[in-house]
């Protein structure tokens, strides 16, 4: 029992750990420690003091040893995404290159609005030993260092220069991590000497505290205006983003759409808001979307965008909506709610949908509009069924997706990122369970797949231990970052990893060709600096990291291998070659703004420039 005036003499590192241990969150009436643990690689910048503080609580605040700081950050992001931003992991890295490796992961978490706490080493406050190992010296500014590079990729940034500062900094960082509008990574720089300095901290600072995610009620004037606009709509559509899941508003979204008869299209982040067979699910929207969703979005006169930041792959660089369509932005973030002169409704998705439903008082959209949308979805479903079917044609991403989709459990989690797989999964995956698809396309970051799968699996075993985490990864991303196959085996966090080898960066080769250029430096065989191309033995490589591994020749063999992987108790890697040219999903695409060469010696490049620019005619100009 602490009394006013009681204090505890602790090092800064010990105080940080003790404080984290006592922060809880209430989720569905159950109190859970908000920090699920951490990912750490120790070095001279964090092991003497922070490592000393973490050791006594290793059973309650587990520290997973990563193989690369960047992949640790990816794993932390995937963990937070699985928990719908209600729990997070910290990452700790040493000073210098260890911390620098976290920059990409911080950018990913920032773009995806995901909570991640970074506790990173820094140079000595006293400067007595300067210049120290790995220190970047700025001759005109001795206070400037590597950790300053995290300012643009952090939602909260601080460098602790006195032990008392954590009394304000830690709660401020946590408030950012839990804020629906400002959620993102928090960075705290910890100078190496200061980590071990002692201070008499108020005992009350370490009292147990239970947090709750804030739900901002929308302004009723904004609700009234949005409802009035929806009442005028003859062809309304709902764009459902990832924020629907973070708000826990899937049931409210579904009920709203059903009550008012409004078709729903999904963003990449919102890919599993509705099951595939829901009659109002018209499909994924945008550049990597579906003909059904893009057709309906293009014909809509009022668009209700819920919990989406409306990035260019969702909006087709702002060509998927009619130029005169009116937008309503329901979002916890003011910045997102007001994009493209939307009628902004700033507030929580769940509360906003409930308020809109009450204001609409049973109003329904014209039934022929819903009938048209459903007819478009049936056409798209027929295309997907043909696209994923395998037979006498080259192996493709879509076929592999179809095999897994047919054999997985509805609660298995699917993870992919970057390259060609996000488009193929988004277009071809039929959602079997709400919130079971993680396509990282906010930052479109190669290397997220296996690391993110590991982080998701750590989270999944806390709630759904009997379900699998399935990773789709191309050969390019695999070669970039694969070491968390080893991590998953070491920590007994089983993954099923499908390595689909198309001989390089095939999707960028496709883009290169689609802009009139010759294949160059993307497929391994097209690299002028590669005299003797060869295929990596991914099976042997995965086995060397302790995983089960096998190579299959076709989708039929993939189905058999996948069933063996499901039955296995440790990570399994299945390798299949896919054609780099054939088998891509050719339908469902919207126009996407890319830079093309206006002047070129190549006639095909000049022609493609004219063709690409021709798609600009339907681009909204922010009105």
From TrEMBL:
Domain Thiamine pyrophosphate enzyme N-terminal TPP-binding: 39-133
EC number: 3.7.1.22
Annotated Thiamine pyrophosphate enzyme TPP-binding domain residues: 440-575
InterPro entries xrefs: DHS-like_NAD/FAD-binding_dom (IPR029035), Myo_inos_IolD (IPR030817), THDP-binding (IPR029061), Thiamin_PyroP_enz_cen_dom (IPR012000), Thiamin_PyroP_enz_TPP-bd_dom (IPR012001), TPP_enz (IPR045229), TPP_enzyme_TPP-bd (IPR011766)
GO terms assigned for molecular function: 3D-(3,5/4)-trihydroxycyclohexane-1,2-dione hydrolase activity; acetolactate synthase activity; flavin adenine dinucleotide binding; magnesium ion binding; thiamine pyrophosphate binding
Protein keywords: Hydrolase, Thiamine pyrophosphate
Domain Thiamine pyrophosphate enzyme central, chain residue ranges per copy: 223-356
Keyword Metal-binding: no
UniProt cross-references to Gene3D superfamilies, sorted A to Z: 3.40.50.970, TPP-binding domain (3.40.50.1220)
Lineage: superkingdom: Bacteria
Family per record: Belongs to the TPP enzyme family.
Protein name in UniProt: 3D-(3,5/4)-trihydroxycyclohexane-1,2-dione acylhydrolase (Decyclizing)
